[in-house]
User: Fold these one by one.
Assistant:
Number 1:
Amino acid sequence: APESPLSSAEESVKSLGEPAPQPPAAEPSEPSESQPGTPLPAPGHSGLSIQEMVAMSPELDTYVITKKVKEVLTDNNLGQRLFGETILGLTQGSVSDLLARPKPWHKLSLKGREPFVRMQLWLSDPRNVEKLMDMKRMEKKAYMKRRHSSVSESQPVDSGLQGSDFSQGGSPQHQQLQLKKPRVVLAPEEKEALKRAYQQKPYPSPKTIEELASQLNLKTSTVINWFHNYRSRIRRELFIEEIQAGNQGAASEGGSPSGRVSKAGEGDSCDGTESDGTVEGRPGGAAGLEEYGGASEGEGGDPKEEGGPETPARSPAPQDATTSASSVPGTSGHKGSAIASLFSFPESAPAATRNPRDSSLRKKKAANLNNIIHRLEKAASREEPSEWEF
DNA sequence: TTGGAGTCAATAGG
DNA sequence: CCTATTGACTCCAA
């Protein structure tokens, strides 16, 4: 068997500065980066680059796509690493995240949509699994080979120094100095404290951050990063609930028990001691305490409905969950233009009516509200307040 | 500069 | 091995 003639390029991606050639045995050390150079070298056939396809891609149902991908991968014992590296050009962790918490299409940036377009393309490739399995075999073969040579090398019970083995490729990486930054791991209590601080003030001032840092004995940058990450991840959970809400009737064929994404939990603000009773099950009704710490207040509390910070109204076109057959239906009139496969979700849209928001997630929305408030205050204190257009 | 979006990559569990 | 989590980084836009 020759080998995979597949879109080859697919992986030659990242060419520059990447240790792509083979699984790193020795670390490539410094992460430096040369410039991106060719962003996406893997257009595959049919001319246009992925970016172009992303640009003209119709709205895709990220939830359905990831669901399908997960199914195919697990059914065939293909790992996220392999899939990510060869098909998406992403690392395992990123793939895991993407598959577990896909953001709705309309909330994704152009860049963020790329992986989904690639997934859709992959799903519509009749030989996708076959190709990946080939890759898998090739990797194993390479691994075996490598292992062998190294074994034979270490066999000689020589005395003396252990010659550092050179990973071929001859990068000069020398001693890495173990200055590899140990990776901060926040203790559960520290996280608790930070979460508590977040509930009071999702957007702490530099001063507050400094205080938190010193109180918790953390670097300022760590606290800053934590807030960035936490906000970002909270936001994402909101998106997910949004998707699930819209994608109710998911009764696909036998199989996926559709894992609940709920996680919730969170201790309440005041005093740590998780008073939490046995809140079992669902994202149960959380007490929606939403008082923002200090700062302004005295709102003329009108129970106003909160409006999403953005995208006032949208019509995600609820796709039917059970999207069968990935292959492109009749559409294929033309010489396999890859784009066609992006339009493979013909089914008419059931156009369901948005049902009232579910309960729960109150807390999260509160944080979101804080977000808005924060911006308003910020705007107010700055230059001419005049227009608060939203 | 600040915040958001995407990712990476180390690491914790299976 | 594999997958999930998560602190840190890179890019970008305002």
Number 2:
Amino acid sequence: TQGVEPEEEGGRDQEEDASRAMERLEAGAAGSSPEPEESDDLLWFHDQLEPAGSSSSRVIVHVDLDCFYAQVEMISNPELKGKPLGVQQKSLMVTCNYEARKLGVKKCMSVRDAKEKCPQLVLVNGEDLTRYREMSYKVTELLEEFSPVVERLGFDENFVDLTVVVEKRLQQLQRDELSALTVSGHVYTVNLQDVLHIRLLVGSQIAAEMREAVYNQLGLTGCAGVASNKLLAKLVSGVFKPNQQTVLLPESSQDLVYSLNHIKKIPGIGYKTTKRLEALGISSVRDLQTFSSKILEKELGLAVAQRIQKLSFGEDDSPVTSSGPPQSFSEEDSFKKCSSEVEVKNKIEELLASLLNRVCQDGRKPHTVRLIIRRHSSEKPWSRESRQCPIPSHVIQKLGTGNYDAMTPMVDIVMKLFRNMVNMKMPFHLTLLSVCFCNLKALNTAKKGTIDYYLTPSLSTTSRSGKRSFKMKDTHMEDF
DNA sequence: TGGGGTTAT
DNA sequence: ATAACCC
């Protein structure tokens, strides 16, 4: 109902699901090795696919889930479907479903403004990211079945490089099928006479199959954009908004970048760079395109200047890089005030409890811990300070299954980091605490019979039970 | 303004 | 260790 059903617009003949798509791809890979004899027609056609002769043209898809946290909440609790729903973290409503948006609620509104706009708004707390994170990785893993090169951006966006998969599929197609190729979903700027961007059309079909698989297997809807690079794929994915997809034909790429009314809309140009560019009198995309490269390089440095000026033309040669497993795990909590050692220690214990569970499930071992704080009232309210240190190897070993063992030494380490940053003889006022595990290394592949095996507590005699969950002791609430 | 993430310097 | 970027 109400716009969450997929494929009103482009989903004919997309009944093929991901597994069948994979069978076809694999069959294609196997069958294409002895170089199928091609007719002259077909050779001519393939020649047209690479106009400039350089084989640099890529097919990239950007997949962007619709109001992701709200969708996960509606799956967790189907009674929320059909009602205006917002997901709240502290005083901020970080996202909301389309029911709520119809009633004037916007993403990243304060909870107060949102309730004012829409008194019937249902709010759920979204501070615990566990279910979002898990669903997010399911999406990435599903997309990896279509092509192994998938790059995550946040929890709800993925880039996939389809170049190789498109090429395989094209080589499988017969001459008559080739001339009958059609686009799936929208085309950016309606100008469909010239159908020579066959690879992008095939990309759009694969994008439709991806969205169909994500919906059928995970129950999530989203948008997709297909283009020749990441920047354009991302920009074009947002053109038709909930649950639709669009492909950008190259001759429309300038129209697309000019449709951005300000440089800050270009992904890669953030808050700081926008301010510095505005100080130079640059505010529109065309301003940036035509601005002196020399001056820009002096002002921002060679790397940033060249990159953002290319972005302003819609050019982006950055590769889609496989995200793989996460580089770090962190848990944070923000609050109005935290100003005593016991409060700090309690928060740290809470953060560590979650982190130890996560690290345990991941299987790899972090070799570094970092503590991050935000102090109140300091001139830069957004700035954070951090201290990090290696995790001693004897503590790393305890990280495997018996989290109770690692908890106490980890708290001690993190509290030392805290004392290194904050002089506890002086009054302090924190508004955020965060603990991060990073420098993750694959587990010690201790083989049976080796010294390592018997020296690794989680592998030898004790505690062969399954993964245990660490439970917080209910401590010290009398402090309040 | 939250609770995450990444890469570059 | 911080600063920039992304969501």
